[in-house]
Task: structure prediction
Amino acid sequence: MSKWTDKEVSLLESHFPTTPKKYIAEEILIDRSVGAIDRKATRLGLTKEENFYFKWKLRQEDTPERNKELENFIVGLTAGDGSFINAENGDRCKFTYKIEMNATENREMIREIKDFFECGRVSEYYREEYNRDVIRFVVESIPEIVVNIIPVFERNKIPAEYKRNQYETWKQDLLTYIKYSEDESCKILCEEVIENEC
Result:
């Protein structure tokens, strides 16, 4: 392979911290392979910004105005009626995003939220302590959380500080779990969803 030009090095230094290597190889430095980009970045001491993938993904998305309004609504709703849950079971972790509300008044809204995210499931059950039926929207699939849920909360700041801190801790725990987990689905996620950057 030919020697790196000053322009190529400059482009690599500019884009590497915030852009997936695969995208750099396919769209920016098209004469360089992912491996060549990785090796050159290592020699230059270049590193990725924290959470760069999500920041990059957000820059690629053009959110329609209606969806922006719905996103803002969902984020506000999550501040009051949503949860970000991390439950450990031995060497495995279960990550959950959930919105739970009174079923009688909110069936249509919860189903619209599910349609918006294009993932998760909706279920109803009787909650004895409240003496009423409850409807909830739940996402537990790690790939769906990474691709569908997290970008919305990166684009829109949760207004309540407690819930915002809960989200940030949950997100960081999730990314750490994905990066170091031996779970096969997480390995695939690292390779295919996060563009070989884990």
